[in-house]
Every structure is written in structure tokens, then in C-alpha cells.
């Protein structure tokens, strides 16, 4: 069993900042990728940013210049520092991880989602 637990969502004013955190726990042998997606009601989940085990990162256009992804391998955690928030960032944010369990199989896991609301 693997669990991703998110925290840090909430309400911010336009131009403000929030920091999302996500920690993975359970039957984890290794984590190849962690990241964040976001989703509006009735729409497809979209990539925000991901980071791989080699330290490389990728940020979608919605995140470039404003959001920074980071990872703590020792804690099996990933963070998303969101600055210069805009009302259009008001979405549910999901933590994502590609995890290999002790059984040698790799699976994709999702957090429960955390609401981010940005007021104008």
C-alpha cells in the first residue's frame, strides 16, 4: 500500500503565494517521478510540474516563471512553491508519483487533491 498525502492548499489573494506539500508513504522501494497536476470541474487533469529522480524538472507553461517544484528524496516528498498567483490558478491540485514497490512493480499514484482558491 502506498499513500500520497497533500497539504498546503487554501485561500490566497491574487499576487500572493502558497506552498503545496506532498509526502509518500508505504511500500516504497524507489520513486522515479513526483509532481503536481491540477484540474477544473468537468475538465481533464493538466500537468503543472514534475521532477525526476535525477533532479531534472519540467514545468508546464502555466507554471513557468511563477511556480517552483522541489523534492526531498529522504522524506519521499515533493513541494510546489506557487508565487504570483492568479484567479485562474483556482483549481484542485493533485500530487502524483511513479513508485516502484518492493515487489518490483512500478505504479502511478495520486493524492486526494487539495483546493487552491485565489481571490482577485
Provide an overview of this structure.
- The chain is elongated, with a radius of gyration of 14 Å.
- The chain contains no helices and eleven strands.
- Strands 2, 4, 5, 6, 9, 10 and 11 form a seven-stranded mixed beta sheet that branches. The protein has a four-stranded antiparallel beta sheet with strand order 1-3-8-7, with no helix packed on it.
- Strand 7 (67-72) and strand 8 form a beta hairpin.
- The mean pLDDT is 96.
- With 120 residues, the chain is mostly beta strands.
- 0% of the residues lie in helices and 60% in strands.
- The N and C termini lie far apart (41 Å).
Task: Write the SSE topology.
Elements (H helix, E strand, L loop, with lengths): L1 E6 L2 E4 L4 E9 L3 E10 L6 E7 L4 E3 L7 E6 L4 E6 L8 E10 L5 E5 L3 E6 L1
- Span between termini: 41 Å
Mean model confidence by pLDDT: 96
Helix content: under 10%
One letter per element, helices H and strands E, the order comes to: EEEEEEEEEEE
Strand content: over 45%
General shape: elongated
Number of helices: 0
Report the C-alpha radius of gyration, rounded: 14 Å
Uncertain residue ranges: none
Biggest pleated-sheet summary: 7 strands, mixed
